[in-house]
Amino acid sequence: MTKTKIFVFGLDGSGKTSIIQTLLNLPISETLDPTYRLETHNLVHKSHEFILWDAPGQERLRVQWQKGFMGAKILVFVFDVSNSLRFLKARAVYRDWE
After folding, report:
1. By CB count within 10 A, which of 4, 11, 51, 85 is most buried?
2. What pTM was estimated for this model as a whole?
3. Which residues pair with 10 in a beta bridge?
């Protein structure tokens, strides 16, 4: 079975965990707790296993992103485009990590 690491990161409250829960066909809670550490989830499709790394988005916890990037084949940066102020912040954070 082929394995692929996918690193999902972005600002806090952007919907990273909700996206992962949707991919895993899990119920989405209206009141999700913030993610405080890197969390992994496995998704198997046919002969492929995707290891989804859910990263915390709070500024003080973003130091964990470096570990999440290592070995990742796919990077998914999540942001909420409906909030223009947060979008500008997300763009700045993304550029810092480029």
Report:
1. 11
2. 0.93
3. 78
Contact assessment for residue 62 and residue 14, using Cβ atoms and an 8 Å cutoff: no
Separation between Cα atoms, residue 81 and residue 47, nearest integer Å = 34
pLDDT at 11 over 80: yes
Task: Reply yes or no on whether the pLDDT at 98 is more than 80.
Answer: no
What is the helix (H) or strand (E) element at residue 6, kind and residue range?
strand 2-10
Q: What is the mean pLDDT of residues 47-67?
A: 96
β-pair partners for 41: 52
Task: Show the CA angle centred on residue 88, arms to residues 84 and 91, nearest 5°.
Answer: 135
25: left (phi over 0), alpha (psi -120 to 50) or beta: left
Q: How many residues does the chain have?
A: 98
One-letter amino acid of 93: V
The answer to whether the CB of 57 falls within 8 A of the CB of 12 is yes
3-class state of residue 66 by DSSP: helix
The rounded radius of gyration (Å) of the Cα atoms in the chain is 14
